[in-house]
Amino acid sequence: MSYIDELGTAAKKAGAAMSLAGMKQKNEALANIAAALDAAAETIIKENKRDIENARANGMSEAMIDRLTLTEARISGMSEGVRQVAALKDPIGEVIGGEELPNGLKVEKVRVPLGVIGIIFESRPNVTVDAAVLCLKSGNVCILRGGSDAIYSNKCLVGIMRGAIAKAGLPEDAVQLVVDTSRAVAGELMKADRYIDVLIPRGGGGLIRSVKQNATIPVIQTGEGNCHVYVDRFADIDMAVNITDNAKTQRPSVCNAIETVLVHKDVAEQFYTALEKKWNGRVRIYGDETCAKFMKTERPATEEDYATEFNDYVLSVKTVNSLDEAIEHINRYGTKHSECIVTINLDNAEKFRRCVDAAAVYVNASTRFTDGFEFGLGAEIGISTQKLHARGPMGLRELTTYKYLISGNGQIR
Amino acid sequence: MSYIDELGTAAKKAGAAMSLAGMKQKNEALANIAAALDAAAETIIKENKRDIENARANGMSEAMIDRLTLTEARISGMSEGVRQVAALKDPIGEVIGGEELPNGLKVEKVRVPLGVIGIIFESRPNVTVDAAVLCLKSGNVCILRGGSDAIYSNKCLVGIMRGAIAKAGLPEDAVQLVVDTSRAVAGELMKADRYIDVLIPRGGGGLIRSVKQNATIPVIQTGEGNCHVYVDRFADIDMAVNITDNAKTQRPSVCNAIETVLVHKDVAEQFYTALEKKWNGRVRIYGDETCAKFMKTERPATEEDYATEFNDYVLSVKTVNSLDEAIEHINRYGTKHSECIVTINLDNAEKFRRCVDAAAVYVNASTRFTDGFEFGLGAEIGISTQKLHARGPMGLRELTTYKYLISGNGQIR
To answer: What CATH number did the domain enclosing A275 receive?
Structure first.
């Protein structure tokens, strides 16, 4: 029996128990986890320090080390997050459809857990707890495969969660960590479709592509965000500048920040002049000739730039001749995440909404709102950029599937 | 530009046009298709004969040739099916959620087409028309890859549909056929995630496994049906016999027919005796010792039998000691399709419903009801046996995704 077989078999068994777990028991497990995290803060920080030391020795950048680091405040934030998830409505058991057929069969469509969820992520230990508690609350079992850089932190956090789950009378194997972080085991995990129902990669484009290439398990792609603002010829220029500024600079590292602004030629001078005044060099611009007339640009944007998620104070700028050209550009280079048009023209707004292929399409608002909390889902496990199953922010409901329950008294065909 | 690049680019372009197509135009295209099929029946039969001749020359079995054959009656059936799909409610544009956020942003969750759907299927030309019209009605574009054995039939049918679509002012590339049926091109198709949003294999287990192994596009698995009836110790024996008989013999070749019956030891003698009386050798039985005491059995069932979809008048039989043993057997060998318990005990029924992991779980009714028409979906493109996106019969709604449309007046974060 391979290591993945062991994890998978245990997960299946835990899944069977979880399918019988009630709301009360699951919430008790979550409350236990929150309390246990708070109580173990010192130990967690100690284990996290081992990861940080190794990361420094391996030459990890300070920005990455910051993402890896757990402090008392961050641990409090984590346990607070767990309590928030506990307070959310349990999606399991919701009857989402049903009817009585002419032959007397009663058909009900009922929300049930997905089953076993595999989550592959990079070195952010907060994801370990976030992902596990969302899975738990929605009746799912998870197998977590975090980055090797965070292995001591993850072992510690998962150990704490497992103890807290067992204390609530639920199977500790509802949360498992892949402690062998070798590539071979990751490869095996992606093909373990006999145990795992869904695979969610959380991380950069490289990770997501690798999972897509190798997995035989259904995958939900999340988090790649090459987003755009299109400034229509009927735009309110002040609004366009404010939205562009917010969508680019309020938090450039996140997936719902924009990477390219497309500007209709008729308002190019006005918009570029106003944006230059607002930023005054704060954002590096890769812009075309028209843009360069009114803004300090570093160089023209290349095809590669258009396809790049900078996650930084960098923006590609393109002057377009028409709404159609903007839509085509977005559908070609975008990652189907969040797209915005600034316009006061109803027809153009409507065409943009219909033709742009993305999870969230905005008229006159910043793309930064694409977020589980902002959309009222309470929490999110990621933002799906694929069209199958769930699109956009994924909350608890998106971690479920359904089952048809049919009751009869001997009906045959 | 490779052949798949050509098809893919054309599909993307057609998809953009389809996202603007209204209900009326789509229904006109469907009406045109139905009329064109009827009008071209002779030509279709002629082209189909070429496939049949080749199939005979290649030694195809008569059962398979029957599935390949188109007659005037079958073509009428096809066009009638198209008219039924035209009459169904258009799922596109349905608002399935939404609210106004505290900051004044209006969020709407609206049903939209999936985009480009790849369908890989074997030599059943009726699937060509079925699949294409369901995609069309739901605003999707499809790329059809049928078996080489049906290539003349498929070329003819697709040509007819494309003409009918163009006549309604919609892009003929909304329906495309992969005419190069080589394995290399099929392999390329499965990896064309830059063009295709979803891949639906329709066919046997071998085809589905190959697609799962090779695709980088999200896949919806359909149609594998290793289904069970469990006869509980609290079963009404007459009802159990009738349901078993119906689920096995009414149409053994379909995916919602059963392959194994599990019988509680306390009612084994009664049930086996009654079933033997009913069938009297009509179905070949692979049964254990207990079963062999009361029924003519061919041999004991093997592990492999338990995992086999016979699609024939063959049944594996196993006597079990408990409900739990039955559930475990089903979750181990089943394909998550349709499962049935016969019992009058409420607790046992409830445990079976919760613990059996399948798209459709029946209490006291034949598994044969798992079907889009029976469930009132109007038509189906297949029965999903996976948990992501759609489970069980997939109708028009299951061929859609959603999009968040957000309207503001300058909101920023």
So the answer is: 3.40.309.10
In a domain, A383, yes or no: no
pLDDT of B122 reads 86
Q: Hey, is the C-beta of A87 within 8 angstroms of any chain B C-beta?
A: no
Please check whether residue A230 is in contact with residue A341, taking contact to mean a CB–CB distance below 8 angstroms.
yes
Residues spanned by the domain of B368: 227-373
User: Which amino acid makes up residue A368?
Assistant: R
pLDDT of residue B123: 77
pLDDT confidence tier of residue A204, bands split at 50, 70 and 90:
confident
Say yes or no: A38 and A172 in one domain.
Answer: yes
Return the closest-CA partner of residue A44 out of A158, A140, A144: A158
- pLDDT-above-90 percentage for chain B: 91
Q: What are the structure tokens assigned to B154, written together?
A: 């498929």
How confident is the model at residue B376, as a pLDDT?
A: 86
* Domain match, A296 and A243 both: yes
Q: What is the pLDDT confidence band of residue B307, given thresholds at 50, 70 and 90?
A: very high
Angle at A137 between CA A134 and CA A141, to 5 degrees: 75
Longest CA–CA separation in chain B, Å: 79
How far apart CA B337 and CA B56 sit, in angstroms, is: 34
Kindly state whether residues A185 and A262 are assigned to the same domain: no
Residues A343 and A30: their CA atoms lie apart, in Å, by 46
Residues A173 and A284 in one domain: no
Q: How confident is the model at residue B1 (pLDDT cuts 50, 70, 90)?
A: confident
- B39 interfaces chain A, CB cutoff of 8 Å: no
A403/B358 CB distance under 8 A? yes
Closest CA to B406 of A346, A331, A252, A340: A340
Q: Is the pLDDT of residue A123 over 80?
A: no
Please report the residues numbered 107 through 166 in chain B whose beta carbons come closer than 8 angstroms to any beta carbon of chain A: 107, 114-115
User: Are B190 and B148 in a shared domain?
Assistant: yes
Whether residue B182 lies within 8 A of chain A, CB to CB, comes out as no
Count of domains in chain B? 2
If you write DSSP's letter for every residue of B334-362 in order, what string do you get? --SSEEEEE-S-HHHHHHHHHH--SSEEE
Subunit contact A401:B408, Cβ cutoff 8 A: no
> Are B241 and B213 members of one domain?
no
Give residues with Cβ within 8 angstroms of B97, minimum separation 6: B108, B109
Q: Per-residue pLDDT averaged across B180-198, rounded?
A: 95
Quick check: A350 contacting B, CB < 8 Å?
A: no
Q: What percent of chain A has pLDDT over 90?
A: 91
Using pLDDT thresholds of 50, 70 and 90, give the confidence band for residue A197: very high
Is residue A346's pLDDT more than 80?
A: yes
What the block records as the tokens of B314 is 């063959």
Pick B243's closest partner by Cβ from A250, A360, A410: A410
CA distance B406 to B153: 46
Q: Which member of A105, A212, A220 has the closest CB to residue B193?
A: A212
* Co-location of A176 and A91 in the same domain: yes
Q: Which residue has the tokens 């145990």?
A: A195
Please tell me which of the candidates B362, B366, B411 has its beta carbon nearest to residue A365.
B411
Note the pLDDT tens digit of each residue in B211-263.
988 999 999 998 899 999 999 999 999 999 999 999 999 999 899 999 999 99
**What ipTM was reported for this prediction?**
0.94
Contacts of A168 (CB under 8 A, 6+ apart): A25, A26, A28, A29, A32
Tell me the chain B residues in contact with residue A211 when contact means C-beta distances shorter than 8 Å: none
The answer to whether residue A287 sits within a structural domain is yes
A331 reaches B (C-beta below 8 A): yes
Q: Is residue B244 assigned to a domain? A: yes
Is B398 found in the same domain as B343? no
pLDDT tens digit string along A144-170?
A: 999 999 999 999 999 999 999 999 999
| Predicted local distance difference test score (pLDDT) of residue B378 | 83
A194 contact B CB<8A: no
- A122 pLDDT more than 90: no
